[in-house]
């Protein structure tokens, strides 16, 4: 069953996104599958396209905090879409075909949150969390497991 996920995006003044609202299907537990491609054009002009069929978990917020910060985001704090694109880049390690570092992926996560108007203190806290702990999933992924 398809579902639209409210992305809570009030404004996209530079028209950086296509494919919103997100169309997803709940797979199990915390896993979602993207039903319609979503793209984001970075401030540098590079295009990151998240393809249909991608499995992701939105933001990796500890379950005890879901009541305050649900993984898909909240009105005024639409970090869920930034998490989707961040997860895609971690899986592919590329933006627009160019290889990227983990820091570049994490910095894009912050860029998207700031662009969308996520409260700055929350955006920087989430960015610090991925900078502090993102090395775990980044290192677990073997070169041959990077999605092409």
Describe the 3D structure.
This protein is an alpha+beta fold. The protein has one domain. Helices cover 33% and strands 21% of the residues. It contains four helices and nine strands; from the N terminus they run βββββββαββααα. It has helices at 79-92, 102-116, 120-133, 135-140; strands spanning 2-5, 17-18, 22-28, 31-34, 38-41, 47-50, 55-56, 94-95, 98-99. The strands form three sheets. Strands 1-3-4-7 form a four-stranded antiparallel beta sheet, covered by helices on one side. Strands 2-5-6 form a three-stranded antiparallel beta sheet, covered by helices on one side. Strands 8-9 form a two-stranded antiparallel sheet. β3 and β4 (31-34) form a beta hairpin. α1 (79-92) runs antiparallel to α2. It is globular, with a radius of gyration of 14 Å. The two termini are 27 Å apart. The model has no long low-confidence stretch (mean pLDDT 88).
What's a quick, concise take on this entry?
The chain is α+β, with helices and mostly antiparallel strands and 148 residues long. The protein has four helices and nine strands; from the N terminus they run E-E-E-E-E-E-E-H-E-E-H-H-H.
């Amino acid at each position: 069953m398809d579902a639209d996920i409210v992305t809570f995006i009030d404004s996209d003044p530079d028209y950086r996104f296509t494919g919103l609202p997100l169309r997803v299907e709940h797979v199990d537990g915390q896993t979602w599958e993207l039903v319609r491609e979503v793209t984001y054009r970075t401030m540098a002009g590079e295009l990151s396209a998240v393809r249909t069929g991608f499995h992701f978990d939105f933001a990796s917020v500890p379950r005890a905090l879901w009541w305050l910060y649900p993984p898909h985001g909240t009105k005024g704090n639409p970090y869920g879409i930034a998490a989707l694109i961040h997860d895609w880049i971690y899986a592919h390690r590329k933006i627009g075909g160019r290889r990227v570092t983990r820091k570049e992926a994490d910095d894009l996560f912050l860029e998207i949150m700031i662009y969308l108007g996520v409260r700055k203190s929350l955006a920087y806290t989430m960015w610090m969390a991925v900078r502090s702990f993102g090395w775990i999933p980044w290192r677990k992924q073997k070169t041959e497991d990077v999605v092409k």
